[in-house]
């Protein structure tokens, strides 16, 4: 870990606070919009640098949805999956895991890891 990655800054503290108040993975734009409310003059480049530093510190983890830019969430949540709303495009955590995922695998194949993304409409958009 570089010294710069472990540096404490107002911007990084503001970004941490946004993640601590969020219950779902955030896009860079969502993070920028929320943090801009508390940090005047916050730039998108600063947000990207801070995200990279927080990932390097293992404080954040990327959430990769195929065909989408990465979103980010607090590290250390343990194994879980995600739901993406097709209306608002927000991503939400889904607790638990698919049972018996090994039954889906062809004979003599070994699963090393898996990720599952559910797609649909979130509660807010379905109103």
What does this structure look like?
This protein is of the alpha+beta class and about 130 residues long. The protein has two domains: about 70 residues, Arc Repressor Mutant, subunit A (Orthogonal Bundle); about 40 residues, no CATH class. Helix content is about 25%, strand content about 20%. The protein contains three helices and six strands, in the order H-E-H-H-E-E-E-E-E. A three-stranded antiparallel β-sheet has the order 1-3-2. Strands 5-4-6 form a three-stranded mixed β-sheet, with no helix packed on it. The longest helix is centred in the middle third of the chain and has 13 residues. The protein is globular. The termini are far apart.
Question: What name is given to the CATH topology of the largest domain?
Answer: Arc Repressor Mutant, subunit A
Assembly level: single chain
Strand line-up in the sheet with most strands: 1-3-2
Shape: globular
The number of strands is 6
CATH class of the largest domain reads Mainly Alpha
Sheet/helix structural class: alpha+beta
| Spans of at least 5 consecutive residues with low confidence | none
How far do the termini sit from each other? 45 Å
CATH superfamily of the largest domain: Winged helix-like DNA-binding domain superfamily/Winged helix DNA-binding domain
The fraction of residues assigned to DSSP E strands is: 15-25%
The number of distinct structural domains comes to 2
Biggest beta sheet attributes = 3 strands, antiparallel
- What is the CA-based Rg, rounded? 17 Å
Based on the coordinates given, report the CATH architecture of the largest domain. Orthogonal Bundle
Sequence of secondary-structure elements: HEHHEEEEE
């Amino acid at each position: 870990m570089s010294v710069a990655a472990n540096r404490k800054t107002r911007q990084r503290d503001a970004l941490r606070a946004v993640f601590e108040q969020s219950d779902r993975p955030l896009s860079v734009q969502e993070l920028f919009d929320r943090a801009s409310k508390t940090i005047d003059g916050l730039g998108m480049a600063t947000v990207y640098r801070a995200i990279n530093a927080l990932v390097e510190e293992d404080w954040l983890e990327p959430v990769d949805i195929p065909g989408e830019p990465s979103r980010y969430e607090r590290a250390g949540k343990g194994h879980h999956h995600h739901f993406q709303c097709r209306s608002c495009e927000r991503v939400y955590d889904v607790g638990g895991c698919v049972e018996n995922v090994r039954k889906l695998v062809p004979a003599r194949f070994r699963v090393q890891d898996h990720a599952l993304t559910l797609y649909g409409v979130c509660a807010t958009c379905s109103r």
